Amino acid sequence: MIRQDRMREFAARFALMLVVYAGFATREPSYYHVAGIASLLDGAFLTGVIALGVGLTMVAGEMDLSVGSMAALAGVLSIKLETFGVLPALVASTALAALVGAAQGWFIARLRINSLIFTVGTLIAFRGFALLLAGEQTVNIPIADLDATDFLSAHWLFLSPLGGLLIVVALLIFGLTTFTSWGREIYAIGGGRTEARAAGVSVRRPLVLAFAMSAGLAGLAGAVMSLQSDSATPLGYDAVLLDAVTVCLIGGVALRGGRGSVVGIMIGLFTLRFLVSGIASLGAPFWAQSLASGVLLISLILAEGGYAFLRRRRSFAGVGGLRGGMS
Fold first, then answer.
1. Which regions span the lipid bilayer (predicted)?
2. What is 2-141+153-284's CATH topology?
3. What is the DSSP letter of 33?
């Protein structure tokens, strides 16, 4: 029964994504042209990669609020390290971010700290480190090295390095959560931490892994975007957390933990991108994009709440009828 409900929910979210896409594709031909598809994938990269990481912490029953600051810090660091090469800068920035994220997860698990409170502190701290490293100003790649990052803006048909990297990250997270015991442990502690402990499931390991992946993916996204644009600002990416959480919620990730999937997150990502890009293509102001995203999310939450309410009423009615028949 639960599996059937999940399949219905998945189908409904997928249908919503198609409706949003079709609604704008009929008015904007670029939606089904190669250049339009490439632009949509590029625009989805930053939010998508960070949402995949944040989604892991949400599935674990926690939340990483520091991803925007981590992306900014990794972006500044990658620009500073670009003199050693683009690839070393990306690897170093991502690895350092993942290491710091693992430390966050360890402290949260070991000391049983509320992740919302703890990552508010690290959000502020990471932003401060980014400002310190950048000297409180935008940092740029030296003019002599500008050609080194040109490949990040290249396109092959509808795919660019950004779009390809988004797909690779999604496949890796899908493999982690579907085929490994470590990935299944993240769902186990999110579904019921007390029950997971009673079953002998480690709480520390999945939390360390979830926060390491969240911070590492935020670092990767911030570094790639900064290198592509040849500059980084320590105050950048301040709004990406809200977009990432919105994507996860649209994709069916539960705030209480234990529920969510990579496929759902990708559906949520492209639903939001189709909506925002479609409204922008019509020449609407930025507030209209924000308003439409909020209305979509609220409508989904109300629909889920209404469906759950009706299911509870049916269950109670069934129990009452059964008791009446027995008496």
1. 35-56, 87-109, 116-134, 154-176, 207-229, 235-255, 262-280, 286-310
2. ABC transporter involved in vitamin B12 uptake, BtuC (1.10.3470)
3. S
CA 67 to each of CA 171, 182, 217, 254, 270: distance values in angstroms, whole numbers, following the listed order: 21, 22, 9, 19, 20
pLDDT for res 323:
53
- Pick from 107, 110, 105, 73: which is nearest to 92 by CA? 73
Identify residue 180 by its one-letter amino acid code: T
| Three state DSSP letters for 36-49 | HHHHHHHHHHHHHH
Domain layout of the chain by residue ranges: 2-141+153-284, 292-327
Q: What is the DSSP letter of 126?
A: H
pTM of the model: 0.90
Structure tokens at 170: 């999604």
Do 219 and 99 meet the contact criterion of CB atoms below 8 Å apart?
Answer: no
pLDDT value for 317: 62
CA atoms of 327 and 322, how far apart (whole Å): 9
Q: Are 53 and 217 in contact (CB under 8 A)?
A: yes
Q: Residue range 101-119: average pLDDT?
A: 94
- Concatenating the DSSP letter of every residue in 69-134 gives HHHHHHHHHHHHHGGG-HHHHHHHHHHHHHHHHHHHHHHHHHHT--HHHHHHHHHHHHHHHHHHHH
Q: In the predicted model, is pLDDT for residue 3 greater than 70?
A: no
Each residue's pLDDT tens digit, 39-50 = 788 889 999 999
Q: What percent of the chain shows pLDDT beyond 90?
A: 55
Strand, coil or helix: 144: helix
Question: In degrees rounded to 5, what are phi and psi of residue 141?
Answer: -70, 140
Residue at 197: amino acid letter: R
